[in-house]
Specification:
five-stranded antiparallel β-sheet, 5 strands
Length: 122
């Protein structure tokens, strides 16, 4: 048996109950986790914010359509930033699509882009 008692990670009060307990209540657990998230680096937060914005812009172009063409100028006007994306996909024809989560684009000639939504493979 352990002679040392465990304390709450948030408030340092002694814990009662289960041996693997880390927090005395939900308030302390939430407070501790919120403080951990607040310490995330700002660059990471900014990148995630840009990715989400790019995704929303691409989704806004599609609306009810499956595929849409647009110009680079229209994308930039809405605040799209081409350097932020999640992955690339090369199809059988050798075309490389750039994706922000499930929404992507295929660069075409003369600064035109084909915007698509990837269908899940589940």
């Amino acid at each position: 048996m352990e002679s040392t008692s465990k304390t709450c990670l948030a408030c340092q009060k002694p814990l009662r109950g289960r041996v693997d307990k880390k927090f005395c209540d939900d308030y302390c657990r939430n407070n501790f986790n919120n403080q951990q998230r607040a310490q995330d680096s700002t660059p990471t937060k900014n990148i995630i914010q840009h990715l989400k914005k790019n995704r929303a812009i691409l989704a806004g172009f599609l609306l009810q359509e499956e595929v849409v063409k647009t110009t680079k100028e229209r994308l930039l006007a809405k605040g799209f930033q081409f350097k932020y994306h999640t992955h690339h996909y090369e199809n059988k024809k050798g075309n490389t699509y750039v994706f922000c989560f499930e929404y992507g684009y295929l660069p075409l000639d003369h600064d035109w882009f084909l915007i698509v939504k990837r269908i899940s493979e589940s």
